[in-house]
Write a structure and sequence with these properties.
heterodimer; A: mainly alpha; Arc Repressor Mutant, subunit A; about 65% helix; B: 13-stranded mixed beta sheet; about 30% strand
Chain lengths: ~210, ~350
């Protein structure tokens, strides 16, 4: 099972095992190693920092309380993402008076593509970036989330399916849908980008 | 990595390729060399590769919310919460008041029931080893002598109900007579012996029961008993009154023999460690040696097994028995420890 297709030297198994055995320092390290990325992920679901902090708090309390009975996940990070996601959903549901009991939790997921980034060097790139920003914003939450897990976290389908609690097949379908939307919306940009790019090089190239 | 498949990749295929995504996000040296060779081999794909990487890279330029300012504060809250719950385990299973009371009642009542059941239904069990003869005194002072390899059990509490025992193997019963008025028999005055498919109901007598391999035989030395047995032919239980000296054999769910013994006391000779037989075949003798004393006996063929020793044998141990057999029947007996082989001489 490929947890992550991108290796970020994630080897937390030793720390995880120490934490499970009741090592307080290992527990603290687990927290400090993951706090920032958990907040970043949580921020995609809600801009309410209190909810995110409460969720992180509850998640770590639960970890400590149940440490003896927890398994050892293939990826600690993915396991924490999945757990945080559940805690946040529960918190947001209990916050709204009208609890939606549908199978598919109705949630928000938004990614803020940074605009005033110095690394965005040239005009075409700026163009693509702007377009992407608009396109992504208009995708349904689940499609936004899967693109995030794929392109930002660099996760494989199995890991994505596990975190989003869908089966791998659904993950394929969902990302396929997201790609279709993405591509349709990008068509014009692409044309612009490449016409300019290749006309500079003097090549007569047209895009599909 | 297979390079050929990339010749026909579309933009979307690249965006969905694990190896490609890794190359864009966090390339290793091998990745860079490999993807360079892809675009060199398939120059037409250069455009899609560039486009796909641009999309991924542009996407990855996004605002990051680390909340670093609160990292310490949240940790302190976590620490405080954990320190304030001394027994963390209890918190998981916190029940509401009603559930707590219900659980308490359930616990109390189950303990009470268990104690009651233990007091009233605890069983006394006795089992003898091969060759062992043991005398057991029952709560009413009746006496049972158990032959080797036999079991006796009863429920400890005999208040206000018939005395009941269960037996497998062989036992000689001397039941205390409690009944004062023969016209009115109280339940507590009854004594019932349960064997396989046969119940023996007694007031006060002495009798011998042998119940092994689905065969039961009962011999009455004195008194009167009522036998109740399952009869296959009539498919319900039958009753039979037995008097002193009566002897029955029951097997395969019906009565196979019923006779009057001249000297019924002979049935109980085993209680004095006597091995006694009357007109017994080699098979019958070997069965007793197997069941009561734990020998493994092999008899060469059925003709041999059916050889009968006329008259009575009464010996006090297995050695004497074997000697008697070999002299009367002229068979060859080979013995090593508890294994005995009987062959024709």
């Amino acid at each position: 099972m490929s947890e992550s297709i991108v290796s970020f030297n994630e080897d937390n198994t030793a720390i995880w095992l120490a934490f499970k055995a009741g090592d307080w320092e290992a527990y603290k390290k687990l927290y400090n190693d993951h706090f920032k990325m958990l907040n970043n992920y949580g921020y995609k679901f809600t801009k309410d920092v209190n909810i995110i902090e409460d969720a992180v708090h509850d998640l770590f309390i639960k970890l400590w309380t149940n440490r003896a009975t927890l398994g050892t996940p293939a990826s600690v990070k993915n396991y924490l993402y999945k757990s945080l996601r559940n805690v946040i959903f529960r918190k947001m549901q209990s916050q709204s008076r009208f609890v939606d009991l549908a199978d598919e939790p109705d949630y928000n997921f938004s990614v803020e593509l940074s605009f005033d980034h110095q690394i965005i060097a040239n005009e075409e790139e700026r163009e693509l970036h702007l377009k992407l920003k608009t396109v992504i914003k208009n995708l349904p939450a689940r499609q936004q989330e899967i693109i995030y897990l794929r392109f930002y976290e660099g996760l494989g389908y199995d890991a994505i399916a596990d975190i989003m609690e869908i089966n791998t097949n659904s993950a394929y379908k969902l990302l396929y849908k997201a790609f279709n939307n993405l591509q349709a919306a990008l068509k014009t940009t692409k044309l612009v980008v490449f016409l300019s790019l290749y006309s500079c090089l003097g090549t007569n190239f047209h895009t599909k | 990595m297979d390079i050929a498949k990339y010749s026909s990749y579309t933009l979307q295929d690249f965006l969905d390729d694990d190896d490609f995504i890794r190359f864009v996000i966090n390339p290793s040296k091998t990745d860079i060399i490999f993807w360079h060779s892809v675009t060199v081999t398939y120059p037409a794909q250069q455009e899609a590769v560039d486009e796909a990487s641009k999309i991924i890279l542009a996407y990855r330029k996004q605002d990051v919310f680390t909340n670093e300012a609160d990292q310490q504060k949240v940790w302190e809250n976590i620490e405080a919460t954990i320190k304030s719950q001394p027994v963390a385990k209890q918190k998981i299973f916190r029940l509401n008041t009603f559930m707590r009371v219900a659980a308490m009642l359930l616990l109390i009542s189950s303990v009470a029931i268990t104690l009651w059941v233990l007091k009233h239904n605890s069983r006394a069990e006795f089992a003898t080893a091969f060759g062992e003869v043991r005398t057991i005194t029952l709560p009413d002072n009746s006496v049972v002598i158990l032959n080797g390899n036999s079991k006796l059990s009863y429920v400890n509490n005999w208040d206000n109900k018939p005395r009941e025992v269960w037996i497998s193997g062989e036992g000689f019963f001397n039941v205390k007579h409690l009944n004062k008025n023969p016209h009115y028999i109280k339940p507590t005055e009854r004594f019932i012996v349960h064997c396989n498919d046969v119940n023996i109901e007694v007031l006060g007598t002495s009798f011998n029961v042998r119940t092994r391999h689905d065969k039961t035989n009962v011999g009455l030395i004195s008194g009167r008993i009522r036998l109740e047995y399952l009869d296959k032919a009539s498919s319900h239980s039958q009753r039979l009154i037995m008097k002193s000296g009566d002897y029955i054999e029951y097997a395969q769910k019906h009565l196979v023999a019923q006779k009057k013994l001249a000297i019924p006391e002979k049935l109980t000779e085993w209680t004095n460690h006597q091995l006694s037989f009357n007109n017994a075949t080699l098979a019958q003798i070997s069965e007793v040696m197997t069941d009561d004393y734990g020998y493994h006996i092999e008899i060469a063929d059925t003709a041999l097994a059916n050889l009968k020793i006329e008259g009575e044998i009464s010996v006090s141990n297995v050695d004497e028995l074997l000697e008697t057999i070999s002299t009367t029947l002229s068979v060859k007996i080979t013995r090593s420890d508890k294994n005995i082989t009987i062959t024709e001489n």
